[in-house]
Amino acid sequence: MNRRAWILFALVAVLWGIPYLLIKIAIEDLSPMMVVFGRVAIAALVLVPVAAVQGSLRALRRNAVPVVVLGLIHIVGPFLLITYGEVHISSSLTGLLIAIEPVLIALLMLRAEPVTPVRAGGLALGLVGVAVLVGLDVSGDRLGLLGAGMILLATLLYAVATVYVQRRAADLPPTALVAGTTTVATVVLAPFAAFSLPTGAVSGGSWVALLALGLLCTAVALLAFYGLIGEAGPNRAGLVTYANPVVAVLLGVAILDEPIGVSTLAGFALIVAGCWLSTRPAPAPAPVVECTMAAR
């Protein structure tokens, strides 16, 4: 990756490691639906004027379908699933489960990239890591299993969206794409959020967490991520999930006092190893050397 791609990679890694902590704080006083609506509405309010000033909104007219699709599969679906999932599981486990995204991207791109024994082993190893995490952390807890299932489904949607961006929306300016998708999400969620308004007092911490979710973890992070896909492609962009869980776990343990044991670390190690192996490029075929005999 070039220098710009590495900068975007580092920025996204930090900004997408923070949301799980902020979601935990926000849902103490706000409903999950209100948290998701609030963060996308804040992002849209910031991004639409930015895209308008840059003149990139015009590009949305001829790309309405991809923008609507991405608004649903990259924002509405995953944000709701993650926020509701965190009602039942810890923020650190959420971050660890989302680390499986590169494996899912590799599975989605099997037709485009050859399957080598190393890649196949990596895919299997990553899935074993998920099984270890879920089996040891939430085994016997039905609500915990439900929460983990929601997170994994959200991760699958993230993987689908990452591939879709490259195939259908890579030429769109990132500001227009993020402004469009967050606006779509805001419009879709507004009717549901109207019935989820807080009925009691909301602490300042919850409001600050919601503001940070919208401004930093949604607006800025999505801009950086779409730019990263354009610079490095979906496979390498998906590798940002290597770093996200580290930030999520450190914050969850340090601030929320969430437990983490050897089994959790082992599951994460399996996922990271699987992601690394499954996303390795296939070796280039050896050049064919044609030998000809000179006529005598």
TrEMBL record:
Keywords: Membrane, Transmembrane, Transmembrane helix. This is Membrane protein. Belongs to the EamA transporter family. It comes from the Bacteria. Its main location: membrane. It comes from Asanoa siamensis. Residues 6-134, 146-279 form the EamA domain. The chain crosses the membrane at residues 7-27, 33-52, 64-83, 89-110, 122-139, 145-165, 177-195, 207-227, 239-256, 262-279. It is a multi-pass membrane protein.
